[in-house]
What does this fold into?
Amino acid sequence: MGNPLYLILFKIQKLYMALSVGQKAPDFKLPSTSGQILQMSGDLLGKAFILYFYPKDFTRGCTAEACEFRDQFEAFRNLDIPVFGVSRDDIPTHQKFRKAYKLPFDLLSDGNGKVCKSYDALIPLINMPKRVTYLIDEKHEIAGVFSDMFESKGHIDNMLKKLRK
It folds into this structure.
């Protein structure tokens, strides 16, 4: 934690907090590794889901987080909760990442960062997505949020606890 970049990111993370529980989730329309364009207000109408934002494919923390979602995917599937990962990486990079780590969920590409920004998941000075996970309910309101740049496992544990209440 003595690395200056980590200290800067930690301070920035505290300044730019995520959306709050009870807020309406911003609609989005993004290309997916399924080959389709996923739109919340159409494809996920009346459906609860997990939307997790992360900085970059193939980096240590992001790979650990994606693999943790993969390893816990059965629990989300049993609760009928789809999982979607979002970063600014393009679809070909996402497809390679998904294949390399056998991810059973789709990754969404937010190349211009507009969706990340609308979810308060974009660090303004460096335009990099921060690590934040949202549980979005059937009414498309934020039902749970976990934001921590350095604790990837906490995102999954936190969401499963909220879902099992």
In short: The first strand starts at residue 29 and ends at 31. The first helix runs from residue 4 to 15. The chain has one domain: 4-164. The radius of gyration is 15 Å.
